[in-house]
C-alpha cells in the first residue's frame, strides 16, 4: 500500500491519477502546519519523515516533484493541504505559527481560508505580540478549538472578553490575567496559565467561586501564582477527602450545586502551583481505568457529607431520633473504614 508521500507525488502527475488515488485512501492522518518567516512546512503526525515545504513559488514534498504556483505562502500551503486531502484521509489541522512577528493581515488570511479553517489548534510560539493582530484573532477564532501563546511576553494591560473562552488554552505569560477574568469562565475543557500575578488569596477566591458555582466552569486548570499558595483554611471549611500520593496529596470535595455535570472536584497544590480538575461521578480521576484507587471517591464524599450533617444535628441535642442517627453514623464510619478511609487531624484521608 502506498504511503501519503507516494500518493501525493502521484497526484501531481495528472488529475485522473489524483481521483484514482483519492478512492484508495483509508487511514486517517493529522496534518501539522508550521509557518515560519519565508515558508511553511506540512507534517503528518502519524508518519515520521513526511515533509512538505511551501513557499511563494509553489510547494514540493521531500525528495519529490516541485509543483510551481505563484502565490502567498498561505495560498500555496492551502493548495498543498487540499491536494493532500484528495490523496490521503486527513483530520483537522494543527497550525503552529513560529514567525518572528505577526500582522493582522496574516491572521486574517489564515482564518478566512476555506481550507485552513478546518483547524483544531492554533499555536503562536515565540511570536512578538501585536495588539491589532491578537484583537482580530480573539474576535474571529473558533472557541471550540485549542489556542496557545508560548515563549513570548504579553502586555500587562491586555483586556479581551474572549481571551479565556477557548475550549483549551495555554498562556506562558499570563500576568495580564486577573481573578475577575477567571470567575467568568464557563464550560472550558482545559486552561494552563504558567506565569501569573495571581496571589494566594486570588486562588482561594477562584476555588471558592468554582465550588459554589451553578455551572461547570472548567474541567481542568493549572495556575502558577506569583507566591506560594495556602489553602488549609479553605479546606477546613469544606467536607473533603485527602488522597495521599508518594510526594504530594490531592484534596477532593463536591460541588455545592446538584446541577453540575462534573461535581467531583480535585485540587492539588504545591508551592505556587495549583492544579484543579472536575470529574463526573463515575470517572476515576486518572486516565488509567486499570487503576481503581480513585473509583469510590464520589461515594466516599457522599458518605462524608452525610456524616457531617448527622454530627451537626446530633450536636443540637434536641432531636428525638438521636439513637437512630447515632446508629446511622456508626454504619457510615464502618463503610468509610471498608473504603480505607482514616482520619488524620480531623480530615478524612485515604491512600
Structural descriptors:
single chain; 351 residues; 17-stranded mixed sheet; 10 helices; 32% helix; elongated; F-box associated domain-containing protein
Set down the secondary structure blueprint.
Layout: H1 4-11, H2 15-24, E1 28-29, E2 31-35, E3 40-44, E4 47-55, E5 58-61, E6 66-68, H3 73-87, E7 89-90, E8 93-97, H4 104-112, E9 119-125, H5 131-140, E10 146-150, E11 168-171, H6 179-183, E12 188-193, H7 200-212, E13 218-224, H8 232-236, E14 241-244, E15 249-254, E16 264-270, E17 273-279, H9 297-315, H10 322-338, E18 342-344, E19 347-350
Parallel strand pairs: 1-7, 2-8, 8-9, 9-10, 10-11, 11-12, 12-13, 14-19
Antiparallel strand pairs: 2-3, 3-4, 4-5, 5-6, 13-17, 14-15, 15-16, 16-17, 18-19
Question: Could you walk me through the main structural features you see in this protein, from its secondary elements to its overall organization?
Answer:
This protein has 351 residues and is an alpha/beta fold. Among the domains are: 1-32 and 42-91, no CATH class; 228-350, no CATH class. The protein is built from ten helices and 19 strands. It has helices at 4-11, 15-24, 73-87, 104-112, 131-140, 179-183, 200-212, 232-236, 297-315, 322-338, and strands at residues 28-29, 31-35, 40-44, 47-55, 58-61, 66-68, 89-90, 93-97, 119-125, 146-150, 168-171, 188-193, 218-224, 241-244, 249-254, 264-270, 273-279, 342-344, 347-350. It has a 17-stranded mixed β-sheet, with helices on both faces. The longest helix has 19 residues, at 297-315. It starts with a helix and ends with a strand. The model has no long low-confidence stretch (mean pLDDT 88). This is F-box associated domain-containing protein.
Amino acid at each position: 500500500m502506498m504511503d501519503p508521500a507516494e500518493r501525493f507525488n502521484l497526484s501531481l502527475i495528472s488529475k485522473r491519477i489524483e481521483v484514482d488515488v483519492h478512492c484508495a485512501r483509508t487511514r486517517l492522518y493529522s496534518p501539522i502546519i508550521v509557518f515560519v518567516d519565508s515558508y511553511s512546512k506540512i507534517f503528518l503526525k502519524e508518519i515520521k519523515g513526511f515533509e512538505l515545504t511551501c513557499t511563494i513559488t509553489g510547494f514540493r514534498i521531500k525528495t519529490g516533484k516541485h509543483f510551481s504556483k505563484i502565490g502567498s505562502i498561505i495560498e500555496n500551503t492551502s493548495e498543498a493541504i487540499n491536494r493532500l486531502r484528495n490523496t490521503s484521509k486527513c483530520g483537522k489541522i494543527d497550525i503552529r505559527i513560529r514567525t518572528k512577528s505577526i500582522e493582522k493581515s496574516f491572521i486574517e488570511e489564515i482564518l478566512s481560508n476555506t481550507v485552513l479553517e478546518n483547524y483544531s489548534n492554533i499555536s503562536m510560539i515565540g511570536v512578538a505580540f501585536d495588539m491589532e493582530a491578537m484583537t482580530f484573532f480573539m474576535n474571529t477564532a473558533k472557541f471550540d478549538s485549542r489556542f496557545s501563546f508560548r515563549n513570548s511576553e504579553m502586555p500587562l494591560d491586555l483586556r479581551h472578553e474572549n481571551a479565556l473562552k477557548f475550549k483549551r488554552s495555554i498562556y506562558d505569560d499570563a500576568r495580564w490575567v486577573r481573578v475577575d477574568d477567571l470567575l467568568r469562565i464557563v464550560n472550558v475543557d482545559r486552561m494552563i496559565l504558567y506565569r501569573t500575578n495571581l496571589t494566594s488569596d486570588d486562588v482561594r477566591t477562584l476555588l471558592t467561586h468554582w465550588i459554589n458555582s451553578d455551572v461547570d466552569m472548567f474541567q481542568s486548570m493549572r495556575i502558577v501564582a506569583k507566591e506560594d499558595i495556602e489553602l488549609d483554611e479553605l479546606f477546613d471549611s469544606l467536607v473533603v477527602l485527602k488522597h495521599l500520593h508518594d510526594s504530594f496529596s490531592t484534596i477532593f470535595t463536591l460541588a455545592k450545586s446538584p446541577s453540575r455535570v462534573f461535581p467531583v472536584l480535585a485540587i492539588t497544590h504545591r508551592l505556587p502551583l495549583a492544579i484543579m480538575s472536575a470529574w463526573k461521578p463515575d470517572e476515576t480521576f486518572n486516565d488509567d481505568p486499570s487503576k481503581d484507587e480513585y473509583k469510590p471517591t464520589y461515594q466516599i464524599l457522599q458518605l462524608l457529607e452525610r456524616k457531617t450533617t448527622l454530627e451537626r444535628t446530633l450536636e443540637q441535642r434536641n432531636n428525638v431520633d438521636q439513637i437512630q442517627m447515632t446508629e446511622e453514623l456508626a454504619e457510615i464510619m464502618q463503610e468509610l473504614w471498608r473504603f480505607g478511609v482514616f482520619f488524620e487531624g480531623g480530615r478524612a484521608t485515604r491512600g
